[in-house]
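Quick board copy: two proteins, each given as sequence then tokens.
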Amino acid sequence: MNPAVTPATIGRTICVGGWTATVRPPETITEQEKAASLAAYGDTGPLGAYEYDHLVPLELGGATNDPRNLWPEPGASPNPKDGVEGELRRAVCDGQMSLRAAQHAIAADWVPLARRTGTPPHSAPVSTPPSMSTAGATAHCSATASYNSRHHDYDVYVDSNRPDETVTVTDAAGHSRSWHTDGAGSADVYFDAGGLATRREITVHVGGATCSTRL
């Protein structure tokens, strides 16, 4: 991720029109990297048949020139993933989704999101990270939590293989909060534990899966 992009700075970074142009690396740098990336994936097509794409896009705070965030995407630009990026950016800047949840959603599996926004992915094989499949898969989840001193509650970050499911977070003190996972199975649940509750265990239920973490 780009450390300059945080929930506190989106108003002067990703939510400002034209900001990504100020951080995008030039082709004189990325063209050689693109060739090396194609070779690493075992792709043999011409460079012009691929876009050297940021998995977490610059407009969602992705790292500008880190090989862990760059991959050769088949097809010309604009492409189906661009529509997903725009929708997620609008959701973040309109306050409908947290920055972290949007980053998780597109990094985990952007293809289902493209289908939901009406921009089907390419029919050709795409060298993305392996997709999450829920058909016949055992439900599972993981969770982490961090205290938000501004709002005096916790961000409970949930990752699962249960897209579009209700997520419920509870603790032994009787607090409960529900939200829903996105198309990639991720969610950011704003959990009110009645103030700072360090080391209190919380339990997460999502689509038949149960996991836990500590505040």
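And the next:
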Amino acid sequence: MTGTIYDLAIVGGGINGAGIAADAAGRGLKVLLAEMGDLAGATSSASSKLIHGGLRYLEHRQFRLVREALAEREVLLAKAPHIIHPLRFVLPHIAGMRHPALIRMGLALYDHLAPRRVIPPSMAIDLRRDPAGRALRPELEQGFAYYDCWVDDARLVVLNARQAADLGATILTRTRVAGAAIADGLWRVSLDDGTGTREIGARVLINAAGPWAGDVSSSALHGSAAEQSTAAKQSAGTKPLTLRLVKGSHIVVPRIAGAEDAYLVQSGDGRVVFALPFERYFTLIGTTDVLFIGHAEDVAIAPEEETYLLDLANRFFAKKLAASDIVWRYSGVRPLVDDGSSDPSAISRDYRLDLVAEPGSPPLINVVGGKITTYRRLAEAALVKLETYVRAARGPWTGTAVLPGGDLGEGGIEGYRMALAHRYPAIGMRLISRLATLYGTRAADLLGDAKSMADLGGHIGGGLTEREVAYLKAFEWARTPDDILWRRTKTGLHLTDRLRLLASERLAALL
């Protein structure tokens, strides 16, 4: 017997699942999202933290994807100005690299593929005079600069889930979809939260499980339930879900002296890697592109990937880096559209929405590929595909709506920081700045009636307080120390091994 009936049941709490949940809930649909781990617990928190068009995609003639992504930069910048901001990228030129005229032509195309209102244009720069040159080897004299945007990727996912929940969606983390089968014209979805199993019904099933999407699709369309639609089973054989799994790895080192901008550097094989300012005191270097075979939950950086990233950084930066400089490393698996390319870097980052729908049976949408920058457009496209299956009360709306905390006003993030500091004069400016950046205007909800630092409870480490932990537990689905230390915040990066262990113990007792 099926319990509550939803319009949409979404499997997967990454950026695509959370984005679809928010869009659908805002249209008046009844939505459930189930995530087997934590929100942004896999691919969506293992990105390069960028909202960008993808300059290198121009060489692969992916003009539609680049145009759509470039247009989304400013849409997302307006939606979440507390966690997204413009960032200047510097391309130092070396012998053997693409010809300067070709680079300038590519940057000019990048500037004009989509309208710009906030993002500045590209330019050639003299690295002997530009401050960005101080971090580089002295023989590097010529370069180029352009702009894209930085994003806190894990928080972007959480904010979309928070918006969905505010609009009535049910968000379930640590809840595995144990099975899905068709019965009585609905998807019958079995949910296991570790304490027991319950069942819900859904008019539409959306498979946004990322690297696990193939498993979810196979399970749904080949279920053993007696009432499973024969037509749907046959459909599964004619529309196989094919993915190309590509591993991307990053390393984090102490801030390279003078590297306050982002850098795009090219290896001898033509691939490019970013070196990005990260968390005030660090530089983030990545990513690699390696075809991945195995279980996505076991993904980890390989020694040769670390060596590749370090060697490439040392080719450009004056500061020599060694493996002992690495303070953090992470890897993720990108589930990409299988376009037949043998080069992992050339595989399209575009998305595909596979609709499996037979007469008399509820539809399934498999979400394949995509990138953080285009998640909102992907969500809109998914809702278009579902117009004949569920009736929404309103049309597209996310293009002009801010995410939770993003209503900063004309003063932007700096103006809001000052207003928050004025409202809470007894709270240190460093903490005020940190909270404003993470939570935007919802920092005031977190601080509440606090009149002093003592009102925020005990100090966990790295600026984290007991009141913030309580907020994250109550409003952002934080359930484990890692949810807080590495995804909701990056506090873990700012603590020594010993202090991180102590913080984890404190957090485990509070959660």
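Board note added afterward: The first helix runs from residue 15 to 26.
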